[in-house]
User: Which sequence fits this backbone?
């Protein structure tokens, strides 16, 4: 089992101009932490062009398109807290979670995240968290 989420994957209090910036920041964390090659970030943008990665509850989960798996070194998640929010069409995301799933783990990761983000109370806590430890406590120990 590989740990896919830790304090180094978290960015708090980020100001973003638009969803393209959100994808860039979420992808940059995945690249810097060694989960993906830089080309994966391009694939995240392409996914957004095909269909929005905004999933409701003030959360977006940018991830790559089909065929982008070749740019994933290992599964990982980035977490970007955006207190002022960033527009995704008519909706506003305050939480951006970049997802990279290797060897078919993508859906497993999304299901584990959904268990956390489907609870409005968790979203409020994630939006208001002041420390990375608070984020880790809410999201928990994610492994695949």
Assistant:
């Amino acid at each position: 089992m590989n740990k896919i989420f830790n304090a180094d994957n978290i960015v708090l209090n980020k100001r973003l101009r638009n969803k393209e910036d959100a994808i860039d920041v979420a992808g940059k964390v995945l690249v810097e932490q060694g989960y993906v090659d830089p080309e994966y970030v391009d694939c995240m943008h392409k996914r957004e062009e095909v269909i929005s990665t905004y999933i409701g509850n003030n959360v977006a989960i940018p991830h790559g398109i089909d065929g982008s798996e070749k740019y994933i070194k290992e599964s990982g998640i980035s977490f970007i807290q955006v207190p002022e929010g960033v527009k995704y069409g008519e909706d506003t995301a305050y939480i951006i979670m970049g997802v990279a799933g290797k060897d078919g783990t993508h859906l497993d990761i999304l299901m584990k995240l959904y268990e956390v983000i489907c609870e409005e109370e968790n979203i409020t806590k994630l939006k208001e968290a002041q420390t990375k430890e608070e984020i880790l406590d809410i999201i928990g120990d994610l492994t695949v």
